[in-house]
Write a structure and sequence with these properties.
With 126 residues, the protein is of the alpha/beta class. The chain is built from 6 helices and 5 strands, in the order ββααβααβαβα. It has a single domain, classed as Transcription Regulator spoIIAA. Strand 4, helix 5 and strand 5 form a beta-alpha-beta unit.
C-alpha cells in the first residue's frame, strides 16, 4: 500500500491534511504543492499536517528532501505545523531547521493541541 492523502479538513482557522499508510516518504511531499494550492483556493494560510498514521520512519536524506519540498509553503505564505509520533521526530529537529532555513514558517509537534495553539496564535518561528 502506498501513502495517500485521505483527508483535507477545514478546522476553525486552519486546514488539516492527514496522511496514512505505508510506502515511500516521497509520496507525502509530492502532495505539498497540491495542499498549498488548496490552501490558497480556500483562503487558508495555516496548515496542520498530521503524519501520526504514516507507518514508516524517515531517513536523514528523506527528512532533508521533505524540507526542500516544503519550500512551496513559503511561496504561498502558509504557516505549517506538523504533528508526528515522538519515535519519528529527530531530537535535533533537523527537518524543521532545514525547512525554516528555506523560509518556511514551520514547527514540528507531538501534541495536536500544542500545534493548534501555535497555529492559531499566529506566532512565527523566526
Amino acid at each position: 500500500m502506498s501513502i495517500r492523502l485521505f483527508q483535507i479538513e477545514q478546522m476553525p482557522g486552519y486546514l488539516v491534511a492527514r496522511f496514512i499508510g505505508s510506502g515511500v516518504a516521497e509520496d507525502i511531499w509530492q502532495e505539498f504543492e497540491f495542499i498549498a494550492k488548496y490552501c490558497k483556493r480556500t483562503k487558508n494560510n495555516k496548515l496542520l499536517i498530521d503524519g501520526t498514521r504514516f507507518n514508516e520512519k524517515l531517513s536523514f536524506i528523506e527528512r532533508y528532501l521533505a524540507a526542500e519540498e516544503s519550500r512551496v509553503f513559503a511561496l504561498y505564505g502558509i504557516q505549517v505545523a506538523i504533528i508526528d509520533i515522538p519515535e519519528r521526530i529527530d531530537p535535533q529537529k533537523f527537518a524543521e531547521m532545514a525547512a525554516r532555513n528555506r523560509g518556511v514558517n514551520l514547527r514540528v509537534f507531538t501534541d495536536f493541541k500544542a500545534a493548534e495553539v501555535w497555529l492559531l496564535n499566529g506566532e512565527s518561528c523566526r
